[in-house]
Amino acid sequence: MCKRRGLAGVALFLLVLSQPVLSEDAKTTLPVVTEGVLDNGLQYTLAPIKSDAGRIDIRLSVEAGSLDETDEQSGVAHMVEHLVFRGSDAWPEGVSAALAKKGWSRGANYNAVTNYERTQFMMSPPDGVKGLDLALQALAQMTAHARITQPDLDDERKVILEEWRGKLGVAARMNQQRIAALRADSPYPDRPTIGNVESIEHTPAATLKAFYQRWYHPDNMRLLIIGDFEPEKVKALITKHFAGLPAIAVPVRQESQYNQQLKKQFRVIHLQDSESGGSQVSWVNRFDEKQMQGTEGYRDRLINQITLTVLSRQLKRQQSALPDSIGNIVARKSETGRSTVAFGLFVDVMPGDFQLGLATLIRERERLMRYGLSVDDFARVKSDILDAAKRLEEKPENRTFSEWVQTLAIAWQQNQPYADAQQRGVRAVAELKTIDMADINTRLNTWLQATDQLVQFSVPGRYVYSVPLPSEIQRMVTTIAGEPLTPVAKEKTSVSVPLPEHDTSGKRTSVKNFPTESVQEWRLSNGDRVVWMKTPLAKDRIWFQAQSEAGYLGRGLNAWQAQLAAQLAGFGAPTGWTDDGYVQWKRDQELWLNISQQPDTLEVTGSAPYKRLDSLLHAYQLLHTDNHMNAASLKSSVMMLARRRLMQEGSLFALRQMEVTELRYGGPALELPDATQLSALNSEQLTTQWKKISAAPVTYFVMANLPEATLRQAVERYLAGIKRGAGLPAEPYLALPGHRERRSQLNKEPKAEVRLWSFSNEVWSPERAAQVSIAKNLVNRHLKNVLRDDARGIYSLSLETVLNDKTNRIETELRFSTSPERAAELVQIAKKAFKNADSQINDRTVQEMKASFQRAETSRQHDYYTLQRRLILSYRHYDNPGYLSRVSSLDKAITTDGVRAVASRIYNPDNLVIYTVLPQETK
Question: Fewer CB within a 10 Å sphere, N or C end of the chain?
């Protein structure tokens, strides 16, 4: 049986404010979806999308995860995920091996993931839709005919063990603590997907086979296929490979298995790890929201969204009233089960002020329960969402193939129908008419007064703190409930004042034309330069980047203050404007400006609609003439630096970083401020640093499809007269030459972490950079084959190789984790693999990569971002736009000999640093 529909259910309407999409791949509207069920229970969903000829994405979900394990099966769902890629009835040598013979690569063409509730297999055949038949054959073998033998398990557990080892670390340890706290009274804390070392090392194949035979049946599987195909032909293939599987019912599961057993309780939780820098107090309430699910729960979910947004606005406005050592209070809400959720208020505190942080949190919580949320904030948020919903109503949703895959797969994975943006807009407009202030305050009180409560203290590093008893906290609540409190101050009414005007007018003094590249180069009367490319890719927007020699290591700067000043400069507002008011003005103008600072350069990037050209350049001008450091951002940054400083005292991570810096560079580029320097820091110091930074001469790169006279008028008004000083050149901070290795016992976990860096001097050119990118992919593939498939010593690795156009070096970094006993062995294997990697490169592999490069170049021809980046590179190296004329022939440099040549230089034993971190000695 099957049915056709447009995934017409309703998903939660979301108001998203984001930067425009950078690329222009082919887009299509929501496909007409076919859904069906085979007689044996297998469900399938087919979404034909013709925008990308030949492309296809296949996903099969087995609805069984770690929550379906017994106490004796820890990690078995995940181990089964691995084993089904091994021997099967049709392919005893292994599914992975059979696919590899057909040119498939793990990761690129097939992969899998297991979580609490399901195991999902993903396939993207290298030959596109032509490979669908093979993909479905493989999935049928994996889900119905896997042999799961003891020899296969004994071999594969080596890789599984390394996957477990690779996940170890401070993030995992803190996450385990949070899961134990937030998901207490449920199976989640005792069912980690990866299992534990004992289960990985000792669980027999029979246990895996029992799990497989219990859950891997068509009635417990769902299939999603998206791509360039005819649905009837695909249904025939599904029937061919899956219809013959027996219909076997899986055990009925209780809903309680997926939720916390909520009750009236008050817990106090202490979260801490010697390597974690978190310093926070939170008050969390847990409750059930089963009524929010499905189409009928849409209105409730919309109320949730509005409530959380209004609350966040109000908490942000309250920041200025908080004590100096207390940071922002934020509200978060997250799912903890299928229908159970947690809502919390979180406050950042300076180490040592946990008691003050708790009192502040209780006081703000009491203020919310006493006075509720602001009707003015509610009106603004509701109006914003209504405006966005009306815009969505106007036209159907259009997405690229990749975007549709991601969007549809999320809804399918949650077993929810998908509604396109137009449908969500229509539904939101209708529902918003029924939502009033009483709905919002009722919802907030439901969250705040839920009786399953916990207070969490996140304590940084090795700081010693004893959390208070529940009874002590309850006494504080009672005391503060008797205090007189006032409502949160209303948002200041925005006074309709114009932006400050500062005379920075000047003249364009010269013009140089490059007609082949559609580029003009202007000189301005203040010495700055404008490089303007007129291109239809800009459409109706201006894309702008200002570059200057003003990095934080620049001459005459205090490095850490300069870095902080650049980070905060974009958050301030000009004279007469509030920070929030200025943010809203930029939003109304549809413009954005971002500041990014490297050791040697400063980049200010921005964009606005063509009709807002003056607003964009005016906002940039104000960064130089009328900028004020945002007090709240400064306070938050100082607290972050203080926590970081405290965490680094005796931290193994800090010791490792220090050793790496010494090993690679001979010392740090800059020192973190100490407590005295932080306490003395003020906005005037940062303003002084920013004035030095912003005075450095600038080259503007502008991409805009507008008349020359229009651009010239705005540039001469706002940019040509900005006062400039000297550049701030930075001494190069480069990795030192030579061969050095170090092994340190600085790991809390039972694993070795290996990092290898190497570089070879190589003058940058576009052609060489293309060869390096191809060689990197092939060397990466070779290393994975050698270290994982042959040596069975790792689960994954990270290889980063780039021809750095600033240092004129091919720079490589390899990272992997392994067992301490095999670290030295695998380092030697990696060295050998690097040395002979070029010999593994042949005409077939290079042509395969060349074809991929050509497809990517076709896409990049419609990508303004790539064009702008190449324009900037061209000026950096040639002081003209000539690189752009060479782009069309870049693929000619991708030859077997050329790629082999650079592959042999990715690893250079003469400039090599290897750092191995081993477990600490047990005492």
Answer: C
What are the distances in angstroms from CA 304 to CA 105, 131, 420, 913? 43, 44, 20, 52
| pLDDT grade for 241, boundaries at 50, 70 and 90 | very high
Contact 813, 754 (CB under 8 A): no
- Outline where DSSP puts E strands in 710-850: 738-747, 752-761, 797-804, 809-818
Of 593, 628, 617, 627, nearest in space to 721 by CA = 617
Nearest of 721, 765, 588, 735 to residue 661 by alpha carbon: 735
Tokens of 870: 């190449």
**Residues 253-278 as b or e (16 or more Cβ within 10 Å = b):** eeeebbbbebeeeeebbebbbbbbbb
Across 228-325, where does the E strand assignment appear?
A: 265-272, 280-288
DSSP track, 398-435: EEEHHHHHHHHHHHHHTT-----HHHHHHHHHHHHTT-
372-404 residues labelled b (16+ CB within 10 A) or e (exposed): bbbeebbebbbeebbebbeebbeeebebbbeeb
pLDDT of 4 higher than 60: no
Percent of the chain with pLDDT over 90: 79
In angstroms, the CA 711 to CA 531 distance is 12
Strands 33-37 and 541-548, sheet pairing? unpaired
Looking at residue 785, what DSSP letter applies?
I
User: Hunting for tokens 């006075």 — which residue is that?
Assistant: 371
Q: How far apart are CA 634 and CA 279, in angstroms?
A: 17
Which residue, 363, 381, 340, 13, is CA-closest to 187?
A: 340
Helix axis angle for 375-393 and 421-432, nearest 10°, is: 140
Per-residue pLDDT at 215 exceeds 60: yes
Q: Kindly list the distances between the CA atom of residue 509 and the CA atoms of 70, 648, 712, in Å, as whole numbers in the listed order.
A: 78, 53, 11
Q: Is it the case that residue 416 has pLDDT exceeding 90?
A: no
Q: Strands across the sheet with 119-123, in order?
A: 2-5, 33-37, 43-48, 221-227, 56-62, 119-123, 110-114
Task: Indicate the pLDDT class of residue 683, thresholds 50, 70 and 90.
Answer: confident
**Surface-to-core class of residue 516, CB atoms within 10 Å of its CB (0-12 exposed, 13-18 middle, 19+ buried):** exposed
The DSSP secondary-structure symbol of 730 reads B
Q: How far apart are alpha carbons 92 and 86 in whole angstroms? A: 8
Q: Say whether pLDDT at 862 is over 50.
A: yes
Tell me which residue of 497, 544, 512 sits closest to 715, measured CA to CA. 544
Q: Which among 310, 495, 331 is positioned nearest to 384, based on CA atoms? A: 310
Strand duo 911-919 + 738-747: pairing: parallel
Helix (H) or strand (E) holding 877: helix 864-878
Look-up of token digits 């409502």: 487
Q: Which ranges of 666-765 would DSSP assign to H, the alpha helix? A: 675-680, 683-694, 708-718
Distance CA 757, CA 812 (A): 6
Which residues have CB under 8 Å from 166's CB, separation 6+?
Answer: 751, 794, 795, 796, 817
CB 303 within 8 A of CB 439: yes
pLDDT score recorded for residue 28: 87
Q: Is the dihedral of CA 470, 473, 478, 479 positive or negative?
A: positive
**According to the model, what pLDDT value does residue 493 have?**
64
Task: Record the tokens describing residue 738, joined without a space.
Answer: 């030579």
The whole-model pTM stands at 0.85
Burial environment of residue 225 by CB neighbours within 10 A (0 to 12, 13 to 18, 19 or more)? buried
Q: In whole angstroms, give the CA distance from residue 502 to residue 717.
A: 10
For range 661-678, the mean pLDDT: 90
Distance CA 673, CA 689 (A): 15
Q: How far apart are CA 700 and CA 545, in angstroms?
A: 6
Long-range contacts of 407-414 (CB under 8 A, 24+ apart): 408/7, 408/47, 408/224, 408/226, 409/57, 409/59, 409/224, 409/226, 411/7, 411/11, 412/45, 412/59, 412/61, 412/222, 412/224, 413/61, 413/118, 413/120
Average pLDDT of 788-813?
A: 95
In the structure encoding, which two tokens stand for residue 825, read together? 């062995």
